[in-house]
Amino acid sequence: MSTQFAVPVESSGQPLKQHRNAGFSALTAILGDSTGAPTNPDVIASSGGRFGMVGESAAIRRVLDRVARVAVTDATVLITGETGTGKELIARAIHAASARAKRPFVRVNCGALAEGLVASELFGHERGAFTGALERRKGRFELANGGTIFLDEIGELSPSLQVALLRVLQEGEFERVGGTETLKTDSRVIAATNCDLDEAVREGRFRSDLLFRLNVFPIAMPPLRERKGDIALIAEYYACQYGGKLGKRIRGVSSSAMEALLAYPWPGNIRELQNLAERAVILSSGDVLELAEFELPGPSIPRSEVDPADERRTIEEALRAARGRIYGSDGAAASLGVAPSTLDSRIRRLGIDKFAFRPGRRNGS
Questions:
Q1: Is the pTM value of this prediction over 0.85?
Q2: Phi/psi at 194 (nearest 5 deg)?
Q3: Can you list the alpha helix ranges (DSSP code H) found in 246-289?
Q4: Which run of H or E residues covers position 65?
Q5: What is the largest CA-CA distance in the chain?
Q6: pLDDT band for position 51 (cuts 50, 70, 90)
Q7: Could you give the CA distance from residue 209 to residue 24 in angstroms, rounded to a whole number?
Q8: Distance from CA of residue 298 to its chain's centroid?
Q9: How far is the C-alpha of 59 from the C-alpha of 64, rounded, in Å?
Q10: 181 occurs within a structural domain
Q11: What is the 3-state secondary structure (H, E, C) of 8-55?
Q12: I want to staple 87 with a disulfide (CB 3.0 to 4.6 A). Which of 61, 192, 214, 280 is the partner?
């Protein structure tokens, strides 16, 4: 019988309580004593995955230490990191550990909204402001008043929206689309991006003054390949979680499977591992997950074998079909089957102007 990384389970298939709280005491000391503030258990990283954050590595401890330090303030936070590293989970942990925890947490995916609707979503609109505006609507900043607004994929904001956001950060003021009344908001801003905003500033795609305002307290999320020590914990956690949902008693992951998981580069990070663990549980016929059940992707085609002209043509066609959008279910990244951050880096490497494919720009038409 193959050996495995055993996971203690209850009869329901869920991990035992002591497994969920592994490392709790050590991290309590880190997050409590180092800040001088009471420790909030909602920001403890343990193998039980509070807020979905699983791990005990030095890398995730450093992240959670920063979460504990900034959560008790109202400082603006900029979370950076590759797709699937858990940026939204960190934003929710900051909100939950703050004095605003009982107030709204409002999420906005700036990359998933049509460009013409972003202003309305963020700031609201008055009746008759545009075709289809049949009544006054509150924007996300109004809804988040007293709480936290999480601006995901902040690097996708258009230049005009960057100006409007800068005003909110500086003065806490805005107007609804089609309105003249100046409204105030007391909402904490947490932004996230998988783009290199410093490079975007150098290329003139992002305002330097807005970056200064957003980057008051940066938190960099480490990719999973830099958290090798957490892979076993994460795989076991999700294996037991999905085993419980499907009524399967999962005791662990085989040694051969775990060896492969540790060697895999995880371009999709934790989200990819979560998806593969769920797949493995669905395919499993026993109580130990085997390598074949994870169906790890094979090696990708080396970049040297890809004709740059063909790559450019493919990307431009996808951008044209997606009207310049990279993110979202109908974005170019989804149609090409790659992570948005991967596509964004290829666009920059090839010198493609993604904004030229958006409505109203002639170059992409």
A1: no
A2: -105, 10
A3: 255-263, 269-283
A4: helix 58-71
A5: 73
A6: low
A7: 40
A8: 25
A9: 9
A10: yes
A11: CECCCCCECHHHHCCCHHHHHHHHHHCCCCCCCHHHCCECCCECCEEC
A12: 192
Nearest to 232, CA basis, from 1, 3, 17: 3
Q: Report the C-alpha gap between 189 and 74 in whole angstroms.
A: 9
Tens-place pLDDT, residues 174-211: 888 887 888 888 999 999 999 999 999 998 999 999 99
Q: What is the CATH number of the domain that holds 275?
A: 1.10.8.60
pLDDT at 360: 62
For residues 142 and 189, state if they share a domain.
yes
Sign of CA dihedral 189, 112, 153, 81: positive
- DSSP class of residue 344 equals H
Structural domain for 269, as ranges = 225-294
For residue 35, being part of any structural domain is answered with: no
- Are 354 and 319 a contacting pair, CB within 8 Å? yes
Position 126: which residue type? E
Cα dihedral sign, 326-328-330-335: positive
187 and 90 co-located in one domain: yes
Count the neighbouring beta carbons within 10 Å of the beta carbon of residue 194: 24
User: Rounded to an integer, what distance in angstroms lies between the CA atom of residue 200 and that of residue 138?
Assistant: 31
User: 200 and 98: one domain?
Assistant: yes
Element holding 209 (H helix, E strand): helix 208-214
Within a domain: 34: no
Q: 312, exposed or middle or buried, with CB in 10 Å at 0-12, 13-18, 19+?
A: middle
Burial group, residue 249, by CB count within 10 angstroms (0-12, 13-18, 19+): middle
Is residue 51 left, alpha or beta, with left meaning phi > 0 and alpha meaning psi from -120 to 50?
left
Q: Would the pLDDT of 14 be above 60?
A: no
Final residue belonging to a domain, choices 294, 315, 338: 294
DSSP conformation class of 180? -
Report the C-alpha gap between 74 and 88 in whole angstroms: 17
Last residue within a domain, chosen from 294, 318, 348 = 294
**Contacting residues for 164 by C-beta, under 8 A, at least 6 apart:** 119, 122, 123, 174
Pairing between strand 148-152 and 188-193? parallel
